[in-house]
């Protein structure tokens, strides 16, 4: 049996899959794709995933895309060390979180990460002209690609960027509510709901934005994140794959943007 994972150190949805695989104690082989250098657009990777995004799991030659789908596939294929609860009601509650992550939080996370940090890295690596940028990611569609270009060029002033930050904050508040009565988002132990949310809270921490929950702002989220970070699976899933230079850059960029982010939330 071989599990190969195409992934990247700063990809939140790839971290979700690494976290799930670690919690299920499944070994896997790394296929690292540097999405900040455009390696997702090489013919080799496009043959694996024409959508040009990570993560992708290859299990004994079968390609599985979409991080939540991958986690469900892994759970069904390898039932030991379950990450989904046993009752349909709790599984439904988990899926409400994973759906929200896929549909809302992930796009917000991409926007925030780009406008606060990746834009600086991409501009340094060379974004090229708008036409080149559009052509390279043609699979994403012109509208999505144009928006990404605006994130890179305009940062926090790009259209919609402020809304994404407010939406992210609203999700932290939803977590605070759910965690008021339990240590975990659904039921009494870590589930896929926590695995799905952890990379997105960790992303804010990586951008030095812990003040969004620290200092008494959202104490249940603070304790939850401490519990998640204390798991032995956290280091291999989240920390080990993020190159130190990129981690330092994201922190420094985040610190630089924090006053603007705080002003935006204070004004809301
Ligand atoms: N819905 C997809 C989203 C995949 C996705 O957006 N991946 C990002 C990294 S988190 C990516 O590969 N981006 C490539 C790029 O920005 O060009 C999933 O959950 O797997």
Question: What does the model show?
Answer:
The chain is of the alpha+beta class and 268 residues long. The chain is 60% helix and 6% strand. It has helices spanning 12-23, 43-48, 67-77, 88-125, 130-136, 142-154, 161-178, 192-206, 219-229, 234-239, 244-267; strands at 3-7, 29-32, 56-59, 62-65. It has a four-stranded mixed beta sheet with strand order 2-1-3-4, with helices on one face. Helix 1 (12-23) runs parallel beside helix 3 (67-77) and helix 1 (12-23) crosses helix 8. It starts with a strand and ends with a helix. The mean pLDDT is 95.
Keywords:
268 residues, four-stranded mixed sheet, 11 helices, 60% helix
Q: Taking all residues together, what is the mean pLDDT?
A: 95
Largest sheet: 4 strands, mixed
Helix content: 55-70%
Give the DSSP E fraction (strand runs of 2 or more residues): 5-15%
What's the number of helices? 11
Radius of gyration: 18 Å
Backbone shape: globular
Order of helices and strands: EHEHEEHHHHHHHHH
Distance between the termini: 51 Å
Summarize the structure.
Helices cover 60% and strands 6% of the residues. The protein has eleven helices and four strands; from the N terminus they run E-H-E-H-E-E-H-H-H-H-H-H-H-H-H.
Helix and strand arrangement:
Layout: E1 3-7, H1 12-23, E2 29-32, H2 43-48, E3 56-59, E4 62-65, H3 67-77, H4 88-125, H5 130-136, H6 142-154, H7 161-178, H8 192-206, H9 219-229, H10 234-239, H11 244-267
Parallel strand pairs: 1-2
Antiparallel strand pairs: 1-3, 3-4
Helix pairs in contact: 1-3, 1-8, 4-6, 4-7, 4-8, 4-11
Bound molecules: glutathione.
Glutathione (GSH) binds next to helix 1 and helix 4.
């Amino acid at each position: 049996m071989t599990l190969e994972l195409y992934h990247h150190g700063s990809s939140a949805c790839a971290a979700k899959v690494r976290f799930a695989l670690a919690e299920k104690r499944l070994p896997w082989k790394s296929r690292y794709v540097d999405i900040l250098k455009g390696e997702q657009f090489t013919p080799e990777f496009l043959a694996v995933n024409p959508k040009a995004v990570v993560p992708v799991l290859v299990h004994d030659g079968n390609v599985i895309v979409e991080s939540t789908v991958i986690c469900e596939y892994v759970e069904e294929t390898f039932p030991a060390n379950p990450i989904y609860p046993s009752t349909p009601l709790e599984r439904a509650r988990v899926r409400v979180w994973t759906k929200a992550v896929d549909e809302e939080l992930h796009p917000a996370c991409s926007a925030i990460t780009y406008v606060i940090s990746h834009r600086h890295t991409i501009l340094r690596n060379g974004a090229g002209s708008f036409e080149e940028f559009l052509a390279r990611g043609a699979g994403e569609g012109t509208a999505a690609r144009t928006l990404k270009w605006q994130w890179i060029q305009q940062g926090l002033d790009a259209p919609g960027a402020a809304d994404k930050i407010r939406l992210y904050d609203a999700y932290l508040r939803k977590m605070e509510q759910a965690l008021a009565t339990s240590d975990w988002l659904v039921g009494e132990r870590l589930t896929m709901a926590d695995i799905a949310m952890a990379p997105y809270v960790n992303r804010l921490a990586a951008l030095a934005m812990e003040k969004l929950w620290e200092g008494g702002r959202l104490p249940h989220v603070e304790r939850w994140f401490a519990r998640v970070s204390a798991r032995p699976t956290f280091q291999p899933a989240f920390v080990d794959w993020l190159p130190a230079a990129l981690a330092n850059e994201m922190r420094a960029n985040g610190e630089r943007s924090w006053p603007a982010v705080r002003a935006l939330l204070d004004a809301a």
